[in-house]
Amino acid sequence: MVDDAISLLKAAGKNPFLYDNILPNPTIDMVDTGAEIAVKEKCGAIIGIGGGSTIDAAKGIAAAAGNTGKIWDWQEGSRDASKTLPIIAVPTTAGSGTDADRYFVLTNTALKFKEGFATDYTYPKISILDPGLTESMPDNVTRDTAIDAIGHSFESYYSKKSNPFSDMVALNSIYLIFITFLKH
């Protein structure tokens, strides 16, 4: 799927650069390296194709590359993030919801600590949802991300900030996930 995306971008006259050094639970080092490459390659946008970790890393890279400094400098949320590069999210899993929100989680291996980041500038500008991409994932990944989605749905339903609309969406999500798995 990444090769297809690169081919499409090249056909559209773009010059994409592939940075594929993102692993589960992305680290600040991975993000800072990606940001340095994005600046060097003069990237105009960051595309995250993959699961929650990949899209979280893309958000961090976009923030660090478009603005100045290392991504860990952003943990307090006090930095101006207005120059964050546009983010395009192409999720291949269903569970994290990072393709639709402003949050991203990164690991600081030196401190042995995971930190959540957020800025209004890290909402993806575009989120491309292709069910075929999620269907091609291994069964264990599908199962794990379904459990993640159920967890998010329960959190939403039991939140002190829930409301009738969010309750409806959360309960419908739980229902759809269970029905889907019962059919398989």
Please characterize this protein's 3D structure.
- The chain is of the alpha/beta class and 184 residues long.
- The protein has two domains: 2-133, Rossmann fold (3-Layer(aba) Sandwich); 138-183.
- Helix content is 45%, strand content 13%.
- It is built from six helices and five strands.
- It has helices at 2-11, 28-40, 52-66, 131-135, 139-158, 164-183, and strands at residues 46-50, 87-91, 103-108, 113-118, 126-127.
- Strands 1-2-5 form a three-stranded parallel sheet, with helices on one face. It has a two-stranded antiparallel ribbon with strand order 3-4.
- The radius of gyration is 17 Å and the shape is globular.
Features:
2 domains; Rossmann fold; 3-stranded parallel β-sheet; 184 residues; 13% strand; alpha/beta
Task: Describe the structure in brief.
The chain has 184 residues and is of the alpha/beta class. 45% of the residues lie in helices and 13% in strands.
- Beta-sheet strand percentage? 5-15%
CATH class of the largest domain: Alpha Beta
Total count of strands: 5
Give the number of helices. Answer: 6
Q: Kindly, what is the distance between the CA atoms of the first and last residues, rounded to a whole number of angstroms?
A: 25 Å
Helix content: 40-55%
In terms of topology, how is this protein built?
Blueprint: H1 2-11, H2 28-40, E1 46-50, H3 52-66, E2 87-91, E3 103-108, E4 113-118, E5 126-127, H4 131-135, H5 139-158, H6 164-183
Parallel strand pairs: 1-2, 2-5
Antiparallel strand pairs: 3-4
Helix pairs in contact: 2-3, 5-6
